[in-house]
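Example record

The entry below shows one chain as it appears in the dataset: sequence first, then structure tokens.
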Amino acid sequence: MNHNASLSAPPRRTRRIVLLGPAILGAASAVFVVRRPLMMSAPMCMAGRWHGCFDTFNGVVLITLVALPLAALVVWALARRRRAAGVASAWRMSLAEVGMVHGTVPFLWMTMMPGAGAGIVPARVSLVPLRDLVTMGPGGIIGNLLIFAALGFFAPMRFVALASVPRILALGAGGSVLVETAQYVLRLDRVSSVDDVLVNAAGAVLAALASRRWWRTTAEARSDRPHPAPAAAPAG
């Protein structure tokens, strides 16, 4: 048995290395591609100017990347405090909380950025499913998939009540409906589309499926715990 286990360990380790290599190359390639547009916003962001930094996609992405060390520090501080208090899964809970916020707020910020005709052009609504997917293009579809991806990835790890695919679907769809409604009410020169709701919810579900191995075991362990029997009513 020990011999067979020792033989199965190297292939598993090799598989992880093989998967980690392309992931690192992909991240390095993405940074190389976006370095030029991000650096265009760097002077404005370093000067603390709103225009050219916080009101542009490039500026928000740059601030999000720069804030990654701060987010990691917050995770470490929360986990250390919870471990001192004897909380189980302190690192997982802390990472999930910070990941939900750090991975969702920037995308919501970019989604709520007003267009050139904000407050002037009338609000627009598209309620025909799948009609706007053609005009979104690959970039628009990927962006909509990422809006609630962090929420779908980390929420079931943090909240056992959300540890199911239907509930994450409802969470992503509900959050997207609120965003689309806000865009319409505030007249941000954006189209409030049912396709945005569908793609946003799909992104949350896909991210939840990607993290399922981490939240499924916790949910099953909670459901397997014996529930106390209700106390019998005293005889009258």
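Notes for this example: The beta strands are 124-126, 191-193. Confidence is low (pLDDT under 50) at residues 5-9.
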